[in-house]
Structure formats: C-alpha cells, structure tokens
Specification:
Structural class: alpha/beta
Number of helices: 9
Radius of gyration: 33 Å
Number of strands: 9
Largest sheet: 5 strands, mixed
CATH topology: Restriction Endonuclease
Strand content: 5-15%
Oligomer: single chain
Length: 299
C-alpha cells in the first residue's frame, strides 16, 4: 500500500528556519549573556556569598527579556515589508487619550490619531514598534516572559495604557521616522510562557509570532532560542559551581599543607636543656573569674 503525504504550503512566503538561524541565535545569546551571566561572574558571586548570588540571579529574567526583544527583531528583519523600531520610544499618554480609551469601544477611536507632541505627565515605552509597509499596519508590542504574576486588573490597565499610547503612533512615525505611513495601530502583549492568552484581546503566545511578523516558523525559532539560552545559563552555572568546588578543595589542601609544615617545624625545634628550665623572668600567675564592677571609693 502506498502512502501519499500531503505537503502543506507555508502560510507566508518568508520562512525562518531554525537550523539556518542557529549561528545568529547563538551569537545573540553570547552578546546578552557575556556581560552579566558569564561563568566567571557566576563563580565570583558564589565566592562572595548569598547577597551576590541573589543579585546575579535576578539578572537572568532581565537578560531573557532583552533576548526576546532582540530575537523578535532579528526574525522580523527577514521580512522585507517590515520596519522594526526599538529602543527608548517614549510615547505620551495624555489624559484625553486615556479617557477616550476607557470610555469608548475601540471601534470608535481606532481610526483616530493624536498629536505626538501633545506631551503629558505619563508615557509608555513599548518594547517594539513593527510597521508592515505593505499593509500600513503597525503593531505596538510589549514582550513579557510570563504573565503568571499579573492580576487581571493589571493586564487590563497595561492594555489601556498601550491603546492610549497607540493613538500618537501614526503621527510619530510620520514626523520622526522618515514619513512612514500607518493607517492602523494594533497593540499586542506577547507572552513567552504561553499562558493566560487572549487572542481577540491582544494577549498572544509566542507561538503566534508567525502571524504577527508574517514569517513562517517565527514561533518555532523563538522557542528554540529560549531553549538555547536556558541551556547556556545552566551550563555556565554548573561550570561555576565546579570551579567553586575545585577552589575550595585547593584551599583546604593548602591549609592542611601549612598545618603539617607548622607541626613539622615545632618537632624540629631543639628541646630546652633541663638545666635551663626555670631560668629567666617568671610570669605572674593567670587568674580567671567573673567580670567585676568598679568598687566605690571608701568615704
């Protein structure tokens, strides 16, 4: 019996292949890990004590967050239609924009654009702005390692702030980024842990990155990159632990060597002749007891 395999055509013409991109992913991981989570830094933290260990381990989620942002940008650059903006993109969140978002259905303001120079005390800094020049759709992206600790109200507040900030994006792109045109801005929270997703509500798992970037295999590449990162951190940690143990063994061996040398030195000293015993200045007897308060002077 002959089995016929039906090949599914890729959804998008741009394809991200894990094996092809692996050298670039490893180079990016090295760039992120080297300044904060190298074997040498981990080993120093182990030698310094618990405070240093705690501090350096806090750097792990920070490093992974940067890696996720850089990884998404790396894959997005495969699609010639996309323009990726990152860095310190401070978007004003005005009172008027906030009230507009909180009091109206998105359908009523999705075609509006506010002045990017309007200012305001509050602002929002997205992780990425991704413009598809073919469709003129912008995605305002917030990347999260996990939403496990986020309450529902906190997620809702974040989405409202993102929507309010999105109202100035078309004006910002046109004025400050070479007259880039955008007719629609969509906000999305990308959750790397793939839990608490709400596709219609703008909370997407990384596995849906293909649709956001229009790059086939984007989600798979990101999952592979996270695995490579975690493997690298574990390898550095295990190497640091082994180096720390080896250093302790060396220190113990050196201490024992010095102890034995001292004992041998004492044995090698000549004994005091009996006729000299008792000669020389005599020391006063040592007394041991409780602490005593000063006595009052007699009247």
């Amino acid at each position: 019996m002959t089995t016929i395999k039906h090949m599914t055509a890729p959804a998008y013409s741009t394809i991200a292949d894990v094996e092809t991109m692996k050298p670039s992913l490893n180079a990016l991981i090295e760039e992120i890990v080297a300044p904060a989570l190298s074997t040498d830094l981990l080993r120093r933290a182990l030698s310094a004590g618990i405070n240093e260990i705690t501090t350096i381990l806090r750097a792990v989620p920070v490093a992974e967050g940067r890696l996720l942002e850089r990884g998404i940008a790396l894959i997005a650059n495969l699609n010639a239609d996309l323009v990726v903006l990152s860095g310190n993109l401070r978007l004003p969140v005005t009172k008027a924009a906030t009230e507009l978002v909180e009091m109206n259905d998105p359908k009523l303001y999705r075609s509006l654009s506010l002045d990017a120079d309007s200012g305001g005390r509050k602002s929002y800094t997205p992780d990425l702005l991704i413009l598809n020049q073919r469709t003129e759709v912008v995605h305002l992206v917030d990347v999260k390692r996990s939403l496990g600790s986020y309450e529902v109200s906190r997620i809702a507040e974040l989405k409202n702030r993102m929507l309010a900030a999105a109202l100035v994006v078309p004006d910002l792109l046109y004025k400050e980024h070479r007259r880039l045109q955008a007719k629609e801005v969509r906000v999305v929270i990308l959750n790397a842990e793939n839990q608490r997703t709400d596709i219609d509500g703008g909370v997407w798992p990384l596995s849906h990155l293909d649709h956001l970037l229009e790059v086939e295999g984007a989600g798979e590449v990101m999952a592979n990159m996270r695995h490579l990162f975690q493997t690298r951190i574990e390898l550095n940690w295990n190497d640091a632990l082994q180096d720390h143990r080896d250093a302790k063994v060396t220190d113990v061996a050196e201490a024992e060597r010095l102890r034995l040398r001292g004992a041998a030195s004492e044995i090698a000293q000549p004994a005091v002749p009996p006729e000299l015993v008792g000669r020389g200045a005599s020391r006063p007897p040592i007394q041991i007891g409780f602490a005593q308060a000063p006595r009052a002077a007699p009247h």
